[in-house]
Fold:
Amino acid sequence: NAGVTQTPKFQVLKTGQSMTLQCAQDMNHNSMYWYRQDPGMGLRLIYYSASEGTTDKGEVPNGYNVSRLNKREFSLRLESAAPSQTSVYFCASNDRAWNTEAFFGQGTRLTVV
Amino acid sequence: SQQGEEDPQALSIQEGENATMNCSYKTSINNLQWYRQNSGRGLVHLILIRSNEREKHSGRLRVTLDTSKKSSSLLITASRAADTASYFCAAQRGSNYKLTFGKGTLLTVNP
Structure:
């Protein structure tokens, strides 16, 4: 009964390096989301995917790309990491059918030095 | 800009007191949700209120929604030290059910 699983949990990158954050859900949900959380800023939406094969920009998409690989998986890629991308990243999913709650992963704490 | 704004940013109360948090939003919604986050953890859903509902209860939680004022409030009654956490409102809108969050209220319940 995993729910939403994010990997890795922690990561340190050097400026300019690339990496992919992985997210998988086992609840057969249609919608998936990536957020970043910074102190005092709450959660800001980076990208979301309403269904397999579709992705849309959120509030802060610059510097990120996403792939909705299949219904279960939604990855977030940083092509050239910058210190401003130091944050905690959360993946979430929900059933788009009608007015449903979102389920969150435990987060990835990313530090870019 | 973020679509939800919680008020107050921080709230400190004594155990047994009630805690009220408010949320305002800017554009029409499908529903308004409240989440809780313990320090360093993921978010946990508390309650959802649909745009055609005005009040909803779940245990010690009471949420109201005023679509004319574009605002919602979360009331936690008879608070406990274990209620200490950050609370976020989230607005879901559009045919793609985009879900955006406010900045949150940090609630501290003192024993």
